[in-house]
Amino acid sequence: MNPLLSRLQPYPFERLRRLFADVTPSPAHRAISLGIGEPKHATPQMLKDALAASLDTGLTGYPATAGEPGLREACAGWLQRRYGVSVHPGTQVLPVNGSREALFAFAQTVLDPSKPGATLAFPNPFYQIYEGAALLGGAEPYYVPSVPARNFAADWASVPEAVWQRTQMIYVCSPGNPTGAVMPLSEWETLFALSDRYGFVIASDECYSEIYFRDEPPLGGLEAAVRLGRHDFRNLVMFTSLSKRSNVPGLRSGFVAGDAALIKAFLLYRTYHGGAMSPAVQAASVAAWGDEAHVIDNRRQYREKFAAVTPLLAEVLDVALPDAAFYLWAGVPAGFAGRLPGLSADEAFASELLAQYNVTVLPGSYLAREAGGTNPGAGRVRMALVAEPAECLEAAHRIVDFCRAHA
């Protein structure tokens, strides 16, 4: 067996199942889960119609790994409309089976484990695929400290020179999971300068880009590059997906775009990896990328939920409206520290909330690693407001009652 598999850590939801193994959820309340970031809004009918219409002809042949020209053009067209960015559909865009598998596979394309100390860096807390991609790619993960005072933005300035010298790739996530923070242009400028100096590749995870709460849409990596005169997107690739934007997590459809040389190498890897997208899924994806009406309505639903829920929870938790994404990243009351033997404050909060009010939240420490003596997720919980508004509001009222009872 591949010995690197033994270095993988349990996924957050596996740890959550273990945490709750001996917890009996309150029978007086129906279950409400805010634990998993799985979109629950209705899938657009036009997308389902496009998928159904393609089934007769879309399953009869092997698809090309590069995808159909029509899909690459639809992706490029969306980038132009959304960010004002022009890319070549044939050389700078590649359809993928969701951003998750692409984020993992891209690292296997880029990393060179034969070089001593090969390193892949990413913010802490983080999406665990980043860590797994580093470990199975033969690299060492480096957990970049975050700054709570700046909504847990990554502190890139704290990374030592020796680490940058061996860094081959970094992941960034904007809007961020779990904090919802959006990277400003100044942060992109810093990263581009570091990339130019040390030669590392930037993989920009942007799958939450269409769920935002401010008037101005989140800045994307390619957009930042163009604003800074980097029209060739040197050492930069962005990843996006229809899962959150169009409420189709089961479709497994997204795309990557950016540096043509990196896209070419990634296409070669995926040709052997077997990463081709079904023609039926491609047809549905063309329809989805070409329509914004359902995206606007989807964003409206999230805005209404967050406007109703956030002020309630802010009465009892350290929480505020994020810049974007569909998570609340909340600090738990101090009284939960040391409350249950062997559990951190966020674990105790999640366990007792389930037992007393049948609401599931994810301990923040499961989304981070201890580095430099600190786990930046400790004492916080992530809540995914993906369910219907009434259900999210009911969960919020239960959490308020729970916190007040334990004040």
TrEMBL record:
Name its co-factor(s): pyridoxal 5'-phosphate
InterPro entries attached to this UniProt entry? Aminotransferase_I/II_large, DapC_beta/gammaproteobac, LL-DAP_aminotransferase, PyrdxlP-dep_Trfase, PyrdxlP-dep_Trfase_major, PyrdxlP-dep_Trfase_small
Q: Does the keyword Signal apply?
A: no
Keyword terms: Aminotransferase, Transferase
Per the record, a Pfam family? Aminotran_1_2
Keyword check for Transferase, yes or no: yes
Taking every annotated instance into account, which residue ranges of this chain make up the domain Aminotransferase class I/classII large? 32-399
In Swiss-Prot or TrEMBL terms, this protein is called Succinyldiaminopimelate transaminase
Q: Which species is this UniProt entry from? A: Hydrogenophaga electricum
